[in-house]
């Protein structure tokens, strides 16, 4: 069952729920009641928007757009519920897309130092999430991973998580998507490079047709085992199949993807993400009902065990 | 007034509300209170998604995505409220778009046999809905209609409904849309072919400009009468004019379209569809208010009579 | 703080909330509680849709789509709360885009006469809003402004407001957008032409990157002062950065834009618009929370003063 969720506080494609401390307090309680023990900040900053008033990011963007100290709040709420908090790195939205991978790494080295000096003492802090997502082998990003992983481990020796995606038809179309064997070849190369740096890989599960998802899950789990890396599945709780980008996913599809991941023997199920797409407090009413369906399913499974 | 609605349980463009039995029970009660006596399942299966665990569809898609028995639930709820349930056929999403019309018909012949063997005894079952929509004459689909209609009537001699659309500017743009006289010519040909097979035609009313909708409604009603076919109007309760595809329609437009249909003398008003777009229980709050506006209008009309 | 809002009753891109008198009564109370003293009808008619059953518009569109008398209702509700109501002109959606500027002006001359004869006695009526938006100098629209302004002032000598937009990257892309100096050049020309006709200019604030918004606000305020025209800022409360067009804006961004406008010394903050995007009664739940964040900010600022 799902025991982890991203916290999507800064996004280029998911609208802001405009929650303050009251709303987040209520939602962390709902997460705990749903069985969530792990929360992963999707990114602590994106372009000129930040989740706390960072000096490092203000040097980069003097007009930095920031309101409350969300990182402090998340760490506090996670601690109250005995959850593990993964800190998501900064995404410049540009350097690592334009060949300036060292600049992306440098910025994050300074930014994560600032994070540790401000929040390093918080008890809930228990992992790093490198937010730069890839879908196939990328030499530049490998170097970002290597430089960052070394630095993060030196700051605090905690598990490092990434959550890549599949170069699948739902985002790239039939022309530009890659098939299963090319996916396996690309990712064997990636896994060989990241072993020893990255501890957990949680593939997003929404980019390929439902019919072939089990095959991809099997390949991903096998590659991870082969390289001694933990394999989680990121069960997307939003729907990629609709013209509205994005509503909560249909329960039938969510259940199918969860069952497929469990059959593949992944180590843990997490979701992107609880608060928008499957929370009883979501701004989307279809998330409230998705939560009800999920809880019915979970209770039935708990009883069966 | 509106006395019928589609049940949109599987769609490529309307997000799932994730309702279970409790939510559907509440919404059927709301439908009954609103004056609905007819519910039409938009399609019982679409590609690899199904509304019940069909053996026929599992042969086609071994990984079939299905959760609850929604067809059984709908038949039960319809019966409790004395409603007539129309069963919507399976849409492969491919065969009838790629010249394999016989395969589309064959699949549905087996699928509707399975439906009858599982649900044929249900009291609410009172009509067939052939879900393959056309906007102009299409020889391949005519053959699907003919083969299916003969088969459906032999399984159970009940009214057969289709709900075509107009090849209008709102979907096709000025270049590819057809005008009123071409529409009339195309549909005279269709009506001549489907008479004796199809009993009811319910044109969707959202594809043309409001100014010319009355002309199309008049032509459709006249063609139906000419061929001894019942003419319903499918008053779309979603808005095709907005960048969000699709929100509940503005009440002004809905009222205008209902009045135009009534003036054209159609036999019955149905809508696509109550639960998302004009229900007090909808996931869209603007549907709750659309329902209030509709009920005020209905009460005023009932009083006037 | 924000003391004015548009009333967006007719739009090509914002879905209808389907509010009747009860819902609007409740929302005007919320506006008053939020500190709103000015309401601006975005347009009284658009193409074939109208906010009251206008004889002038029925000549143009015999099938005119109209339900309730919304203008009468808004004037009544504004009066009850001591608010000033600005009447927004008709937008044909075509004449002024196709060189027929005189026809657009003629139609509006007749339409505003009809408005005055029907609603001229209403106490809340306190301003004109010319709804034709421009982003740079446009000779044809200048003539519309000149002809309309003269006529409106002769009907009732009240402040005339326009709310232009910036030809910025968020709508036009990097290729077609114009930079700050070209914006200044274009708008110096506009201001020179409209002085003596238009009394208030309220630029929309959502078309440029956050980093450069303060520069545009400073230029706009300086140009307005230079020409003796009042400068308001139209703080957009919807988010232009998301694939969904449009959700309520993230609070961080809203706060940033408000603070930038206050620093630029504008005369008044208004928003497009309260009821959809920052009302506790909105059809969008993220607007309820945006309202909470705004009220917390407002109370803190009120206390600080």
Key terms:
homotrimer, 305 residues, alpha/beta, TIM Barrel, 8-stranded parallel barrel, 3-stranded mixed sheet, 15% strand
Concise synopsis of the structure shown:
Three copies of one chain form a homotrimer. Chain A is α/β, with parallel strands linked by helices and 305 residues long. Chain A has helices spanning 21-34, 55-60, 70-80, 101-119, 139-155, 169-176, 180-194, 213-226, 251-263, 274-277, 285-304; strands at 2-7, 38-41, 45-46, 49-50, 84-88, 90-91, 125-129, 160-162, 200-204, 230-236, 268-272.
Explain what you see.
The structure is a homotrimer of 305-residue chains. In chain A, 46% of the residues lie in helices and 15% in strands. Chain A has eleven helices and eleven strands. The first copy, chain A, has helices at residues 21-34, 55-60, 70-80, 101-119, 139-155, 169-176, 180-194, 213-226, 251-263, 274-277, 285-304; strands at 2-7, 38-41, 45-46, 49-50, 84-88, 90-91, 125-129, 160-162, 200-204, 230-236, 268-272. Chain A has an eight-stranded parallel barrel with strand order 1-2-5-7-8-9-10-11, surrounded by four helices. Chain A has a three-stranded mixed β-sheet with strand order 4-3-6. In chain A, 50% of the residues are buried. The mean pLDDT of chain A is 97. The A-B interface holds A 210-211, 214, 239, 241-244, 247-253, 255-256, 284-286, 289-290, 292-293, 296 and B 12-20, 23, 48-49, 61, 63, 65-67, 244-246, 283-284.
